[in-house]
Request: fold
Amino acid sequence: MKLLYYYLQILLPMAIMVYLYECELYETTLFLILAYVLIYRPIVDGYRLIRLGQLPKKEFWKMFIPFYGAKYFGALYFGSVS
Reply:
């Protein structure tokens, strides 16, 4: 069930951005996409990895480094230990 909540956390904002794009709010959509990629996803992914015990709290800041979370792909999306 926790994996389902994680998927909802990452997919629901994307649905909102698609809706805004279809309403022709292009500048707002671009800003939200940047905020999603650079701020929201590293925070959500970091907290999930901390809860799974894959990432120590003191290394949370590393999630803001581009592609750092790629080595945790299995743990994030499938709930497995990688």
Remarks:
- The chain has three helices and no strands.
- The chain has one domain: 2-78.
- The mean pLDDT is 91.
- The first helix runs from residue 2 to 22.
